[in-house]
Amino acid sequence: MRVCQFGFGFGDTMQNSNNLENNIRLTTPALRWLDALPVGNGRIGALIFGGVEAERLALNHENLWRGVTRNREVESQASHLPEIREALLAGNFLEGHALATKYLSGHSRRVQPYQPVGDLSIQLLASDAASDYDRELDLSTAVASVHYRANDIRFDRETFASGPQNMIVARIRASAPGAINVRAALSRIDDPDAIVESWTSSDAIGFSATFIEGIRFAVETRIVSAGGRRQSEDGASISIIGADELILLTAIAVEWDGDDPAAACKAILDTAPQSYDELLAAHLAEYREMYDRVSLELETPADRRTLPLDKRLDLLRKDGNDPGLAALYFNYGRYLLLASSRNCDQPANLQGIWNVDLRPPWDCDIHNDINIQMNYWPAEVCNLAECAAPLVSHIERCIPQGQKIAKQLYGCRGVWYGITADIWGCPTPEAPDFDVWTGAAPWLAEHLWWRYEYSCDIEFLREHAYPFHKLCAEFYEDYLVRDENGWLVTVPSQSPENFFVGGARPVSLCVGSTMDLLFVREVFSRCIEASERLGVDPQMRPAWQAILDDLAPFQIGSNGVLQEWLRDFEEGEPGHRHLSHLIGIFPGEQMTPDLLPEFYAAGRVSLERRLAAGGGPTGWSRSWVCALWARFFEGDLAYEHLIRLICDYSTASLLDTHPYGNEWGVVFQIDGNFGGAAAIAELLLQSHSGVIRLLPALPTNWNSGSVKGLRARGGYAVDMAWQHGALTEAIISSEPGGTCVVACAPDISPVDDNGAPLKGIRDAQGRLNVHVDAGKKVRLTRAL
After folding, report:
1. Torsions phi, psi of 494, nearest 5?
2. Which of 518, 562, 628, 666 has the fewest Cβ atoms within 10 angstroms?
3. Do 552 and 412 sit in the same domain of this protein?
4. Is 453 strand, coil or helix?
5. What is the DSSP secondary-structure string of 132-201?
6. What whole-number distance in Å separates Cα of residue 78 and Cα of residue 395?
């Protein structure tokens, strides 16, 4: 058997000894919250600033939103749909837009904002100037730490969000006995819409709060000290003087969790272990079982291995050469998904679970026209399927109201979801102009289908994926109309957030956007496939196929691009951030070199023209560009944009940014982190259209490396190692078993456990057909 020479075999843990791909290290505290280090357990989170004189932990809870009590009813407006359609079908786009906005839009309403809980502040008394300062986030342990020297004493702080205990755990230690002197306090930003009542006891501080709508929440910090004396101060803080060690245990609860948030906090803390070692051990056992499923190793240049992150970023901006930093970005995306979306109620919002503002950008909402979808692009391929469970719950929680709104606004069966949402299960139109769009529900349906594709869980298909796809199909069955060519089209339609010359701004309504046509094809094709696999609804298949047969075709424009709209409109903003008409290439799979190759080629022209005009101007948009280049098998072009994503759209702590340019300035949007992680996975492994592609778009400077644990559609897991830009070894394992089609180099062939060659069958395209028994694995290696 050929043995990988990159420093490990697949029997090893594949953990890098210097942990570079798992460590964010900085040498200065965060001066703004965008540069703080995030920890979270899915339900609660904290941003750790790492100050010396005063530490700040900005606290959040996934369920703390405003607005549960406000009116979310919509009026019946479906009777106006014929006049809206008449105008748009006649080409009177401004008139049709005005009518649609008047009757179908949410007007001045907005979803209510996600809210910060408050701050745990730890003032460190009598500290001298600090030296030897480091703050770090170890992604492999999910522990944030701060280290420095003051008064010739070494101080160490560690913080993590415990999943098993559902609380934030912080420990302070010093190298000299009795050296810890702190004042701890809990507070919340000044908010006229909340009543806050603070309290202290001999060993705890806390507050209870109520929004004017009646939503209640609470936070309590329990203090465990070794040595020292305590003193309650001003009813809101506690001082601890002369301690040897200090542990702060913080619980947060929202009325969503029960009737009495304060009692819920107390119950969490009363039953929690008081031993830091015990708390840490339980945390690591729960977290690492998920995080360690996948690992990626890429070479780090020798001159970067001891540098803090900010210095590595400076060098990357100069020479573009630090593959190990790409591996770190990939692992950070996995970490953030675990930290914001595991064992919880809600999907990760625009900022995951981390927010310090009462009115955050876009209200920290759930954006359904790319952002929430991008948040979950890494979930399946990175073997974190359980992190998508809150998204599935959110989708299904909205069904009853979505059915009601579909009937009231559009006169259709099925479901309709708005472009923006919150956690209250009412997917109403909330964003004027932008919300006259019917694509949210089918785009979310993709994630249910992927869960089935990656898991081969037939019961999930039966109970979740197929029923929701049927609801989307019902809506389109009623919504589609025929245009002057006799084609079935969606009217009104839009390509999210984009506009064309002659249409309304900031978004133009039209007839049959390419994105809509892609969704319709996807929904009905999957309904047919699912009904066949489940052996149900055979009578529906002919009608579904008839819709597919009569649907308006995709179009190639006069300049060779894949048109974004059914008509060959002039683009109002050629460098627009959204790439909606390219979803058939990524994240979808309708357009490939084998399927619709002419539209696949036209999609590449569209991408090239958009980038030439300044496209990809945000972090999330740039990560989408990376993934698209991966689907075009252009590893070096993808890597070029990955470098721009990391260098141009990251804070000091690698949080993704959106350079908004108004009073918000540069803002944090977590989708770019997730999209970047998914794009990196796409460079290494693709599994759409029934083919597993090994290293399909490997960048040139990722010369040697390895990846373990990525998932492929069909229930497969894939490990790979490569040298000199070529695959040396791969292991494909399967839980359900099956025969997979593998695109790989001609000199790659299967071997048994002893390295003896096995028969491999190549198809007409040169792809290897490999059978994997259930629960077994097959090793592929380069022939000697």
Report:
1. -155, 160
2. 666
3. yes
4. helix
5. EEEEEEETTTTEEEEEEEETTEEEEEEEEEETTTTEEEEEEEESSTT-EEEEEEEE----TTEEEEEEE-
6. 24
- How far apart CA 568 and CA 208 sit, in angstroms, is 58
Which residues does 311 contact at the CB level (< 8 Å), separation at least 6? Answer: none
Q: List, as one string, the DSSP characters of 500-525.
A: BTTS-SSS--BS-BHHHHHHHHHHHH
Start-to-end C-alpha separation, the chain: 9
Parent domain of 707: 693-782
In a domain, 210, yes or no: yes
Is 538 part of any domain?
yes
Burial of 126 from C-beta contacts in 10 A (0-12 / 13-18 / 19+): exposed
Distance CA 85, CA 127 (A): 70
Rounded to whole angstroms, the Cα distance separating 92 from 89 reads: 7
User: Where does a domain end: 252, 273, 291?
Assistant: 291
List, for residues 696-754, the tens digit of each pLDDT value: 999 999 999 999 999 999 999 999 999 999 999 999 999 999 999 999 999 899 987 77
Task: Give CA–CA dist 289/116, Å, rounded.
Answer: 30
The pLDDT tens digits of the residues spanning 34-55 come to 999 999 999 999 999 999 999 9
Give the angle 585-589-594 at the CA atoms, nearest 5°: 90
Considering the domain architecture, whether residues 503 and 434 belong to the same structural domain is answered as: yes
Could you give the number of structural domains in the chain? 3
Q: What is the CATH number of the domain that holds 578?
A: 1.50.10.10
Question: Of the residues 237, 263, 291, which one is the last residue of a structural domain?
Answer: 291
Residue 734 lies in a domain: yes
CATH number at residue 254: 2.70.98.50
Using alpha carbons, select from 591, 665, 630, 29 the residue that is nearest to residue 360.
Answer: 665
**How buried is 273 (Cβ within 10 angstroms: 0-12 exposed, 13-18 middle, 19+ buried)?**
middle
| pTM score of the predicted model | 0.96
Give yes or no: residues 61 and 87 share one domain: no
pLDDT in tens, 500-552: 999 999 999 999 999 999 999 999 999 999 999 999 999 999 999 999 999 99
